[in-house]
Amino acid sequence: MKILTENLLFQGLDNTEIQQILNTVRHNERSYSPGETIVRQGDIIDSIGILLAGNAVGKKYTPEGEEIIVSQMAPNSIFGDVLSGAIGFSSPVTVQALKNCRVLFINYQQLLFADAPATHKVLQNIIQNISRKYFTQNKRTDILMLKSVRSKILSYLEWQKSINNSNSFSINLDRRLMADFLGVERSALSRELSRMKKEGIIDFHKNKFTLLY
Amino acid sequence: MKILTENLLFQGLDNTEIQQILNTVRHNERSYSPGETIVRQGDIIDSIGILLAGNAVGKKYTPEGEEIIVSQMAPNSIFGDVLSGAIGFSSPVTVQALKNCRVLFINYQQLLFADAPATHKVLQNIIQNISRKYFTQNKRTDILMLKSVRSKILSYLEWQKSINNSNSFSINLDRRLMADFLGVERSALSRELSRMKKEGIIDFHKNKFTLLY
DNA sequence: CCTTTTGTGTTGCTATAGCAACCTTTTTTA
DNA sequence: TAAAAAAGGTTGCTATAGCAACACAAAAGG
Fold first, then answer.
1. I need a labelling partner for A200 at 20 to 30 A (CA). Which of A129, B66, B126, B213 fits?
2. Is B136 inside a domain boundary?
3. Contact positions of strand C to protein Cβ (< 7 A)
4. Could you tell me the mean pLDDT of each successive run of 10 residues in chain B, 213 residues long?
5. Residue A209 pLDDT greater than 90, yes or no
6. Distance set, CA A131 to CA A91, A128, A138, B57 (Å)
7. What is the pLDDT at residue B64?
8. Which residues from chain B sit within 8 angstroms of residue A128, using beta carbons?
């Protein structure tokens, strides 16, 4: 359970406080094999999930049935927090285990209403966490609004530059995921990246990018 | 102050509880004339704003300097909640008064740490409110990801249909805002809407739409 | 009431990006 | 280590949507 002390949800809490909360609030742990579905698109859930071990992805399906990866989860990732917060909404994504996963589910309503003093801090952490997610989402919306592939790429790379505080950085998306994130065809992305490299605006190798302007 | 009892932030609280919170938490009221800026894009703010009277809009500017309306606010609208929650982020939007506005600002940190018993309920309301905004944002992202103007329109109208529980409904966006929301040219939107009407898929007049399929 | 502004629809031109198909390189795994 | 699979790059064709420009109707404002 040591991993929980580093979880964003419990930031600022010590072991005893976390234990206190777990004693008060209903929770359960479950394991999943690779490929198994943890949350299905359309499910209504009432728990916050914490990935204790393993890797998972959030997918969704377009109206045409094409599959899109919308998020990648590593140990200590939190999911279902936004969903549980918006009572009555159903999950827009399917969460699927990639490797053997161990997931801790914490009942959301009980967490909200628990009167352990530390829950107050947890609520703040939830708010902070959701807000951060909201801003990432927002940034993506801004990028998706741009009309040309090039402007999308530039906007994305600028963003990453500002996050990494450097003209040179690695991104954690491969070309397919990057194309999905920008809302363009993978081939169109490759084409434009090559063009930009040829023009000397950027340089890149695999997922390592450098801005040259 | 009667209007606050109907505010989503104070849902489930009675007058005395709201008063209690306001007594504990620093807040202030300010008026704005039409056209005046309430929050500037890039500002870092530490308060939740509640529009007590008047109308305002949230705008943002594209890299090319084009102005886009991203939200419309009526009395009792809440703004700055997500922003205050994500400590260290700066406002992605400019909030501007359209008519004479009266705004109540409530200090966010104090609201979080206040120990009036009712604040706990307020935190839950904040979470619910942010979560809802997140889902709207999410829906928009889904729509922006679609490639053709027609599929965007259909996806948007389906969504509105499900919200209104009817094949016939009014939307609260004019063509310009609708085009912005869908991330397409206004002319392209008009063209496609006309085409769809001609094909008998939909009918519309102004902002009143009917799905015919 | 007349004028101005705003909202909406229409259309021709054209660049761009989607699509499909194929190739090359790298990584995985049997 | 050979074979298979995954990731990335390239390219031709073509429909589509962006852009610009204009027309018309409705609403707002003085």
1. B66
2. no
3. 7-12, 16-21
4. 89 91 93 90 92 92 83 92 85 90 93 81 89 92 95 96 95 95 96 96 94 91
5. yes
6. 18, 5, 10, 21
7. 77
8. 85-87
Based on the domain organization, do A35 and A108 belong to the same domain?
Answer: yes
Among A129, A159, A185, which residue terminates a domain? Answer: A129
Q: How far is A213 from chain B (nearest CA, A)?
A: 17
For B34 and C9, how far is CA from C1' in angstroms? 31
- Of A135, A119, A37, A34, give the one whose Cα is nearest residue A82: A135
A172 touches strand D (CB under 7 A): no
Q: A-B interface: how many C-beta pairs under 8 angstroms?
A: 105
Higher pLDDT, A116 or A54: A54
**Residue B91 token pair:** 């406002």
Please state, in angstroms and rounded to a whole number, the distance separating the CA atoms of residues B159 and A55: 32
Largest CA distance in chain B: 61
**Residue in B137, B139, B155 nearest the CB of A138:** B137
User: In this structure, are residues A139 and A170 in contact, taking their beta carbons and an 8 Å threshold?
Assistant: no
Range of the domain at B10: 2-129
Short-list A42, A41, A38, A67, CA closest to A54: A38
Look at chain B and report how many structural domains it folds into: 2
